[in-house]
């Protein structure tokens, strides 16, 4: 069942105050910071929407956080059935691939792992660790891999408890534009 933009908004209003992993911010703050970084970078409305919604899976699944349970929660896949039919692959694929982008960057950039927050380093171990060279090449050969890498870098920097990005309402037009593109694709 696909979620409408209004239902996604309600979900962030109801559950967005939940702490974001082991970081000093909540889910909503993280989503807004990530979208703000994407928009400031000149990303398309679809990629800004992906940045805003990339961790929606954490809000959809009511379970113990991965760092406490010792298993990967696979959040990057959880939101996809709820977003498919509303958004195009330009939104869905960077969301699906943002965890693998972290694994890719650990292989491709020797300084990347050390730049991760302790919580992100812990989750990396649960998510399979750095890619091998072959896995990294396979990852980058996929459509939307570059967008997923950009999203990952915004994700890594969207953890500042002092940041004051625009609020959720600022991104409603972006979500509607991205959803309209999904609707247009569904009609074709």
What this model shows, in words?
With 188 residues, the chain is an all-alpha fold. The protein contains 13 helices and no strands. The protein is globular and about 40 Å long. It starts with a helix and ends with a helix.
Largest sheet: none
Strand content: under 5%
Helix content: 55-70%
Shape descriptor: globular
Q: What is the radius of gyration?
A: 16 Å
| Cα distance spanning the termini | 21 Å
Tally of DSSP helical segments: 13
- Count the E strands: 0
Please state the average pLDDT score: 91
H and E string: HHHHHHHHHHHHH
Coarse structural class: mainly alpha
Low-confidence segments, given as residue ranges, are none
Q: Which secondary structure elements does this structure contain, and how are they paired or packed?
A:
Blueprint: H1 5-15, H2 27-40, H3 45-53, H4 56-60, H5 66-69, H6 75-78, H7 80-83, H8 89-108, H9 112-115, H10 118-126, H11 133-140, H12 145-157, H13 172-187
Helix pairs in contact: 2-3, 2-12, 3-8, 3-13, 8-11, 8-12
